[in-house]
Amino acid sequence: MPQSLSKMICHIVFSTKNRENLIPADQLEHLHRYIAECIRVVKCEAYRVGGTENHVHVACSLPRTVTAAMLLEEIKRPSSKWMKQFDPNFHWQDGYGIFSISQSHLDQLVRYIDNQKVHHKELDFKDELRGICDRYGVSYDEAYLWS
């Protein structure tokens, strides 16, 4: 086959340092748009970016020429720098979660991201991340998940 073809869709989750509410509510939408643009810069498609004051969810493509680590670096580094104009002490947590999803589940993921405010009235980020890992079949060590 002379042509390389790829269609990878990812659900990405990462939090602020120590899961503190470091993203001002009035900057959430601006930050999400900024992150979407960071994603487009590396030739990925940003289907949706959302979250709350202490974490971000992303639904995006991952082309064959970009690794997960490269994509996260191109999201977190510039968005952290951008956020420092509002809070010089702003930092993202070091780690992240990236999970593959099928095209048939993309609409469901977009709705999930759109409903973060409602979702988090009943569930904190730690319980949400545990549930995401369980749903995607990802094992984790609780001792390292939050440090």
Q: Would you give an account of this structure?
A:
The chain is of the alpha+beta class. It has one domain (9-145): 2-Layer Sandwich (Alpha-Beta Plaits), CATH 3.30.70.1290. Helices cover 40% and strands 18% of the residues. It has 6 helices and 4 strands; from the N terminus they run E-H-E-E-H-E-H-H-H-H. The protein has helices at 28-41, 68-83, 106-114, 116-119, 125-136, 142-145, and strands spanning 9-15, 46-52, 55-61, 97-101. A 4-stranded antiparallel sheet has the order 2-3-1-4, sandwiched between helices. Strand 2 (46-52) and strand 3 form a beta hairpin. The model has no long low-confidence stretch (mean pLDDT 94).
Task: Tell me the strand order in the biggest sheet.
Answer: 2-3-1-4
CATH topology: Alpha-Beta Plaits
Helical stretch tally: 6
Order of helices and strands: EHEEHEHHHH
Q: What general outline do the C-alpha atoms trace? A: globular
Rg (CA only): 15 Å
CATH superfamily: Transposase IS200-like
Q: Percentage of helical residues?
A: 40-55%
- Strand segment count: 4
Number of domains: 1
- CATH class, anyone? Alpha Beta
Mean pLDDT: 94
* Largest sheet: number of strands, sense, barrel closure: 4 strands, antiparallel
Distance between termini? 45 Å
Q: Which structural class matches the secondary elements?
A: alpha+beta
Q: Segments where pLDDT lies below 50 for 5+ residues?
A: none
Q: How much strand?
A: 15-25%
CATH architecture: 2-Layer Sandwich
